[in-house]
Amino acid sequence: MATRTARDTTAESSSSIQTVQRAALILDSFTVSRPHLSLNEITARLGASKATAHRYTKALRAANLLRYDDRTALYSLGPQVLTLAAAARAALPIVTAAEPYMDRLVQLAGQTVVLSIWDGESPTVVRSADNTDHLIRISVRVGSRLDLATSAQGRVFCAYLPPDQVPALGKLLRRAPELRAELDWIREHGLSVNSPSENGLHTIAAPVFEGDAIIATMAIVGTSVDVPRQADSPMAEALLEITRDLSQRLGNNGVPHAEAAG
Predict the structure, then answer these.
(1) Do 29 and 106 have their domain in common?
(2) 160 lies in a domain?
(3) Residue 16's domain is classified under what CATH number?
(4) pTM here?
(5) Above pLDDT 90, what percent of the chain?
(6) Same domain assignment for residues 63 and 98
(7) What's the pLDDT tens digit per position in 57-100?
(8) What total of structural domains would you count in the chain?
(9) Partners of 114 in the β-ladder
């Protein structure tokens, strides 16, 4: 009977690690701005032969982590990635920490409350708490990606994140110079209330800090009739009170002065 040596075991371990690293590299190649890639692009990213890249894409397709469009000959992320992303979001410490504060705000405001985090390009919803007492409920899908310039949550992140963490900010400010004044207003008042109404809905949002850095935004979503635009409304004040309480729990001793948007 053949005897396995330590060298054989080490070689297998190194091969397994390389396999995982290459699969992760392929999946990491897809971004919001580049959701579709050709085999040539994946091959270049992988730094291996086209045959090797094809073997990996075939295995990832079998696991539903990639999908392939025969018509365009392009790859995109598969449905299993959504399942993994949902599980990852649910496990975020900020979600667990924010849950009781969100539930408290739902009771105070009587509206849907949404928590979003920054995904590197835009806000992504990680938890939504509905007001179950309303005859008509407003629900926001977890995993939704919000517009950077027009959503209240997007504007809050633009106001408080360092400019180098918001790649699209410079272009946005050149295209809409009035946004700069809006971001200054948000930093002065600690929340965004001037988001456009879409489909009769209105959103106000405030930052949540961990230490001195913004980690999330909490927002109230309701009809344009139910959610006022005034920064001194009881609803806005309740939002500010609860986000400050949560931020203090996460080690923030006062809202830091954010860098001016560049």
Answers:
(1) no
(2) yes
(3) 1.10.10.10
(4) 0.69
(5) 47
(6) no
(7) 999 999 989 999 999 999 999 888 877 776 666 657 888 999 99
(8) 2
(9) 128, 219
